[in-house]
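User: My collaborator sent over this chain with a note saying "see what the structure looks like." That's all I know about it. Can you take a look?
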Amino acid sequence: MTKDLLGRHRAVMPDWLALYYEEPLEITHGEGRHVWDAEGNRYLDFFGGILTTMTAHALPEVTKAVSEQAGRIVHSSTLYLNRPMIELAERIGQLSGVPDARVFFTTSGTEANDTALLLATTYRQSNTVLAMRNSYHGRSFSAVGITGNRGWSPTALSPLQTLYVHGGVRTRGPYAALSDADFIAACVDDLKDLLGHTRPPAALIAEPIQGVGGFTSGPDGLYAAFREVLAERGILWIADEVQTGWGRTGEHFWGWQAHGRSGPPDILTFAKGIGNGMSIGGVVARAEIMNCLDANSISTFGGTQITMAAGLANLNYLLEHDLQGNARRVGGLLLERLRGVAAQVPHVREVRGRGLMLGVEITRPGTDEADPAAASAVLEAARAGGLLIGKGGGHNTSSLRVAPPLSLTVAEAEEGAAILENALRSI
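Assistant: Without extra context I'll predict from the sequence alone. Here is the result:
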């Protein structure tokens, strides 16, 4: 059955539509932190549909909210008043930390970042954008144009002029040997120098922890130091929270809060986990920025009632059950467990991250050279052991991505760590 489905997939889908595993699997259903494939195999899910199933599979509270809303009305568009959309916008605006917040809903993180770029370039009357090396911001034409990761950037054409800044990767690059304080100072000096060579940019867009890039990040406080430089020049800061939002990092509800000394971002984008699998993305911005457009705009499917009902139920569950705290506690245990394993596996260069957003970088033993074949072998071995994880990495890097639902239990963390340990030792 699976081989037949794979043949049909290849006959009708683009060649560049990636599939995991030498023998791809069809996931048919899930419950809690587990999923099942078409052959009846059960897996502990440590990737959650690329961080989208943030709370749990088949969470009853979300399933009930979706079912009840579907029984009333599924969709009407933003041309009409929409109670669930307004209620979720009120909650997100309050939680965002952005003053005088306005919220616009989209259907994906790509579209959210595309909207943020539209707002920033219009507000600033500039098509120059600063982005981080090793970054990923989506697959639209503008988002691809600012993505600093060659593996996910299929064209050099772009409506934007993009300039790339140091700092997204702490343990590689020309500043890796510096202390955290000196690393930040060097990156700030580089930013100042860069700004002296270009016309005034519209904004800096940055993931507090780089997702597709392998869960890499700069030191805490880096973007606060950047913001001081940017604010002096009127340049906006866009925090791409598509993967870091909603408490996944454990220590903070938003990734930007690790860099909050200079205040919140001007624009914040979100998606993935808030819908727990439903298609929700969005943008939060100060009113003067959000309202800078001088032409009409709507969103046909952004803010549709059924996804907003899911988002409200999921957010309520997340807050009422302190899943941010659970991510901090269980994620901390998982991080230490994986670091203990890594110390005994020559292929592991680094285990990094925070909360339930952890990266395991794989290299050729004794070098800093990426080993994508070994990373793929670990992915296959983990699946064989009953664990699903992700991959990532940018320039000369190969990483495994570990991002389970935030309701992960201690017992499940131990089970997953044991499977991943065996997979790592197998290479």
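A starting point for your reply to your collaborator: Residues 145 and 158 are 5 Å apart (CA to CA).
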